[in-house]
Structure formats: structure tokens, C-alpha cells
């Protein structure tokens, strides 16, 4: 069975772009998020991009690698990319690989997520 992921992008009045992700981030779905991040970065050039992961139910190493690549692409053009509201599973994955702080997340799952 193939995984599904749904991405929606919205621009807030303050110029921040929010990308909401739902479903799984794995080999069968990362291309959609890659495209959404790339297109939004190039078209909107936001100062801050928030990737909201509240409804991400699964993320493997391919999903993590995509988020790191997106972070680097954003940084190269002067955009700050942060993750918001990761599910407990996603937050744990990012903590295990030592990447929580890179994305503006606390290292402890019981601490509130970054909220600009």
C-alpha cells in the first residue's frame, strides 16, 4: 500500500509562509513536499517558512533528509525554515538523529514547540 501525504501552503499577512503537511513522509511522498518547498521558496522568498507537521503520522530517514535539504535551500536564500507541531513520533525521530535544534524544536518532547 502506498503512503499518502497532503501539503497545503499559505502565506500569512506578516509574510511568513506556512506549509502544512499531513500523512507520511517517506520515499513515496517526499517528492510532493520537495516540490512544495522549492516552489514556495523561489516564488515567495519568505523571511520565515514554517513546516507544520502536526498531522504527519510517519517519517523515515528519507523524510528527514528532505527536511535537512529544505533547511539548507532556505538558508542559502536567506529564509529561516522551522518545524512546528511535530507529532510525538516525528519529534522523537528528529531528537534521535540530533536535528531537533536545527529546526527550532526543543530537545525535550514535553517542551512546547516553536510558535512564532
TrEMBL record:
Q: Report the Pfam families cross-referenced here.
A: STAS (PF01740)
Entry keywords, A to Z: Membrane, Transmembrane, Transmembrane helix
Which residue ranges does the record assign to the STAS domain?
Answer: 6-116
* Gene3D superfamilies registered for this protein in UniProt: STAS domain
| The keyword Transmembrane belongs to this UniProt entry's keyword annotation | yes
Membrane-crossing ranges are 48-70
In the UniProt record, does the keyword Nuclease occur?
no
Q: Which family, according to the similarity comment?
A: Belongs to the anti-sigma-factor antagonist family.
The protein depicted here goes by the name Anti-sigma factor antagonist
Taxon lineage: Bacteria, Bacillati, Actinomycetota, Actinomycetes, Micromonosporales
Amino acid at each position: 500500500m502506498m503512503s499518502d501525504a497532503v501539503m497545503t501552503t499559505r502565506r500569512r499577512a506578516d509574510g511568513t509562509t506556512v506549509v502544512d503537511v499531513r500523512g507520511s513522509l517517506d520515499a513515496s511522498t517526499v517528492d510532493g513536499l520537495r516540490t512544495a518547498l522549492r516552489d514556495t521558496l523561489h516564488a515567495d522568498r519568505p523571511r520565515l517558512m514554517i513546516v507544520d507537521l502536526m498531522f504527519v503520522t510517519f517519517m523515515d530517514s528519507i523524510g528527514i533528509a528532505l527536511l535537512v535539504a529544505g533547511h539548507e535551500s532556505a538558508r542559502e536564500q536567506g529564509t529561516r525554515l522551522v518545524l512546528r507541531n511535530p507529532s510525538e513520533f516525528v519529534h522523537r525521530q528528529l531528537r534521535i538523529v540530533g536535528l531537533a535544534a536545527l529546526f527550532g524544536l526543543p530537545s525535550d518532547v514535553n517542551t512546547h514547540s516553536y510558535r512564532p
